């Protein structure tokens, strides 16, 4: 093991420090500064900052020419109030690291300590801390940043902790592992009227009543195969909270979800056709907008083979688990530039779920994740 007991104590404490100071997607300036300061102490050859926003890339160069291996973690937290009683609970009201990104950062910091003490024999190892994972905008911003061309990888790895799996067990497979998804925001515009004379206005109420079940019926789930699709209505608002006004405005928010990107184009088209048909029939104005757009996440066979070799060498039990999974992950875009693979590291069968208000990353996973990644790096770079 390349980490000492003192390292583990310090890494766990640093993880808890990050937990106390969560920042939302696109607002991670303080977290990025903390990462830069902690990793600077490991003596990297270069630190790239401002990558796709607040992203940070930490570069460790080998002694000989060779490939570039990148490992990625996330900077951002969630807009959820934490309810735990841990001493390191969030110090920021309404925000918390309830997805484990603080722990993922600690795993990469552990790699930084190891790489600082012993450089790769060849090539480059790059630790990249990505902004804005939770809203799906960060990976695109990173790979489209001109600075990314300077650190272009030949292989990319990532992990995500996964409650519900035994602590320390890994799920890994080739092919799609996380779904494509996007949020659709539908705005319907009519005309307000006095509540006693609704006939003088144009209400969106009936259109909303039609659209909510009809949208859901476009994709009702089922097996996670190439034709899987799901639509989940997540929010709706009609008019204003007043008894004297018949509404003239409404919004519906829904999440479109498919296993693969190609299927998303079809689902999006059907959703738009449905909305336009209902709105036109009711004489309503309509606007459709998208946000939180996630590509599907697909593991390349050659990258999976490297991770399996590392897992076996480190004695970490692994299988396919329940992959692929319905949630989305903003890692798929890295696979456009190099073979990429993500594995899922069990956080415990009874552990609170991701995004739950009482979730906290298990510090025991720092050492396991770091060992697997370091073994993969050494196997590829020496």
Automatic annotation (TrEMBL):
NCBIfam families: amidohydrolases
Keywords: Hydrolase
Entry superkingdom: Bacteria
Cited InterPro entries: Amidohydrolase, Bact_exopeptidase_dim_dom, Peptidase_M20, Peptidase_M20_dimer
One Pfam family of this chain: Peptidase_M20
PANTHER family the record matches: CLAN MH, FAMILY M20, PEPTIDASE T-LIKE METALLOPEPTIDASE, PEPTIDASE M20 FAMILY MEMBER
Start and end residues of each Peptidase M20 dimerisation domain: 183-278
Name of the featured protein: Amidohydrolase
Organism: Microvirga puerhi
């Amino acid at each position: 093991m390349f980490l000492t007991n003192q390292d583990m104590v310090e890494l766990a404490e640093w993880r808890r420090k990050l937990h106390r100071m969560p920042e939302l997607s696109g607002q991670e300036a303080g977290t990025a500064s903390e990462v830069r300061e902690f990793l600077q102490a490991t003596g990297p050859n270069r630190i790239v900052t401002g990558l796709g926003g607040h992203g940070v890339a930490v570069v460790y160069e080998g002694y000989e020419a060779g490939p570039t291996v990148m490992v990625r973690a996330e900077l951002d937290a969630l807009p959820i109030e934490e309810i735990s009683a841990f001493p390191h609970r969030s110090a920021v009201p309404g925000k918390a690291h309830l997805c484990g990104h603080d722990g993922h950062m600690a795993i990469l910091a552990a790699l930084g300590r190891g790489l600082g003490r012993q450089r790769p024999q060849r090539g480059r190892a790059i630790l990249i801390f990505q902004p804005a994972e939770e809203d799906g905008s960060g990976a695109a911003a990173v790979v489209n940043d001109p600075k990314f061309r300077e650190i272009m990888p030949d292989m990319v790895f990532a992990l995500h902790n996964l409650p519900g799996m035994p602590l320390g067990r890994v799920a890994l497979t080739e092919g799609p592992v996380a779904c494509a998804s996007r949020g659709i925001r539908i705005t319907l515009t009519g005309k307000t009227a006095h509540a006693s004379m609704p006939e003088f206005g144009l209400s969106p109420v009936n259109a909303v009543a039609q659209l909510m079940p009809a949208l859901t019926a476009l994709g009702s789930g089922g097996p996670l195969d190439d034709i899987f699709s799901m639509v989940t209505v997540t929010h709706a608002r009609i008019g204003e909270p007043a008894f004297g006004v018949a509404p003239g405005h409404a919004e519906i928010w829904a999440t479109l979800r498919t296993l693969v990107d190609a299927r998303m184009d079809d689902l999006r088209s059907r959703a738009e056709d449905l909305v336009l048909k209902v709105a036109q029939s009711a004489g309503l104005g309509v606007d459709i907008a998208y946000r939180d757009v996630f590509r599907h996440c697909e593991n390349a066979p050659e990258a999976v083979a490297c991770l399996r070799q590392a897992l076996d060498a480190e004695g970490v039990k692994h299988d396919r688990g329940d992959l692929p999974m319905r949630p989305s992950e903003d890692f798929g875009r890295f696979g456009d530039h190099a073979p990429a693979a993500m594995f899922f590291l069990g956080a415990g069968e009874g552990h609170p779920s991701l995004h739950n208000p009482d979730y906290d990353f298990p510090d025991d996973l720092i050492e396991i994740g770091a060992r697997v990644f370091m073994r993969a790096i050494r196997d590829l770079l020496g």
